[in-house]
């Protein structure tokens, strides 16, 4: 007489547990990331809010400004090298700005070439293509600016 009550209570317990587990799983799968963060007391901010916050904090940091300029150039000059290096591409490779073109001399070109080759030489696991383009750019810039 006691056995049917124990079995019935056990089955009821299992059924209620499974039902609540399934309900919790369905509810969990419908939650958005923001809701999960709020349930865990985590501040969840949107990408635009993050950009606004970080741009305010990092706008005075010189390293951040340098990286932002680099990212600007990466977006502006997409693609590979020209088949033959020209003066404009040489100036880009050596990171000379248009405003500096009046100040460029042979010493500056050789100094920048040395820095770039130190970073990109094939003997130091650099790219042979990049090293050859740097050398071509140096030759072209020396043709334009060595007579000054």
TrEMBL record:
One of its GO terms (cellular component) is PAM complex, Tim23 associated import motor. It is found in: Mitochondrion inner membrane. GO terms for biological process: protein import into mitochondrial matrix. This is Mitochondrial DnaJ 2. Signal peptide: none annotated. InterPro entries: DnaJ_domain, J_dom_sf. The keyword S-adenosyl-L-methionine does not apply. Coiled coil: none annotated. Gene3D superfamilies: DnaJ domain. It comes from the Eukaryota. GO terms for molecular function: ATPase activator activity. Keywords: Chaperone, Membrane, Mitochondrion, Mitochondrion inner membrane, Protein transport, Translocation, Transport.
């Amino acid at each position: 007489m006691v056995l049917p009550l124990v079995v019935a209570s056990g089955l009821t317990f299992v059924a209620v547990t499974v039902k609540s587990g399934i309900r919790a799983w369905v509810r969990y799968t419908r939650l958005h990331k923001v809701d999960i963060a709020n349930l865990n007391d985590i501040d969840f901010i949107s990408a635009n809010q993050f950009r606004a916050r970080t741009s305010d904090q990092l706008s005075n940091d010189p390293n951040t400004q340098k990286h932002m300029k680099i990212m600007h150039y990466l977006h502006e000059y997409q693609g590979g090298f020209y088949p033959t290096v020209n003066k404009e591409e040489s100036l880009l490779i050596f990171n000379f700005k248009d405003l500096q073109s009046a100040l460029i001399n042979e010493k500056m070109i050789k100094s920048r070439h040395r820095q770039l080759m130190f970073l990109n030489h094939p003997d130091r696991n650099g790219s042979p293509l990049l090293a050859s383009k740097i050398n071509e750019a140096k030759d072209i810039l020396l043709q334009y600016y060595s007579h000054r």
